Amino acid sequence: KEDGGGLNMRQVVEDICRLSSNCYTIVDEEERAVGIGLFPVAALMNHSCSPSCVQSFRGRSMQLRALKDIEEGEELSLSYVDPAEPLAVRQEELRRRYLFSCSCFLCAGEGPKAEDEEKTRVLAGSSREAEKRVDGLLRMAREAAGAPARPETVLEQQLDAIKAAELVLGPHNVKLLRAREEALAVSIEVQSWGVADELSSRIIESYRRLYPPGFPVVGVQLAMHGKIKMQLNDIQHARVLLSEGIDILRRARGEKSRMMEEAKSLLQEIEWEAHGYGRFCEDMSKK
After folding, report:
1. Are strands 46-47 and 33-37 parallel, antiparallel or unpaired?
2. How many angstroms separate the CA atoms of 155 and 133, rounded?
3. How far apart, in whole angstroms, are the C-alpha atoms of residue 207 and residue 172?
4. Single pTM value for the model
5. Domains of the chain
6. How far apart are CA 133 and CA 123, in angstroms?
7. Deepest of 75, 80, 157, 160, by most Cβ within 10 A of its Cβ?
């Protein structure tokens, strides 16, 4: 029905719905959402919770990269949702945002069920009351992160909630994973590198279990952990982490991504130091 200005409001609503269902969330180099974009060709690609491709963004352009070797005639797919989330959460988001239920081999029960069960696992012997209490502590920690409080106080509350959660939730439970991610951001902010090191180690363990092989968020976290190790002067482990992170990011993001170039620069710095070039370059720069 048209309004007084000649607009067909039904058509407007339908166009908005089409945009919402076909647009992509644009993320930065560290996988943080910064906006949305409409890419007509990529919008034709179907969803899979175990995708063959991953998208990245550079300016107004979207790039597709393969996560694995793809056979001739094999369908290309992307994940419309975070594949680390449990089955019920993925299905709910797909129904709410895209109006369909996923029937990929993971959702159909043909994939490794143990991995999906780990996402919601509660430790044996834990009561429902204990789980509810932990949920409350984690919620309070999230709220504290958004409140105008000293970051050191926020981090202390987050770590207390995580410690309580570890007694009830499985090691790769997504609730525990998200709490660790939030605490890691605060620990880096206050430069508590020992805490950041422990949190990042646990996060990487969960990422390896919950994300498809080669997923970019794993490479980003490995590179970040390499930088944390450098702050702790643990050069040997920093080299290993940065090298593995670079291998993943090279495939998922390409050689020219900012995160890739930064990680390569740090690795080169480590190699120079290891071969005695660091002091030589420093001396040369003073001449």
Report:
1. unpaired
2. 19
3. 9
4. 0.84
5. 9-111 (2.170.270.10), 116-285 (1.25.40.10)
6. 14
7. 80
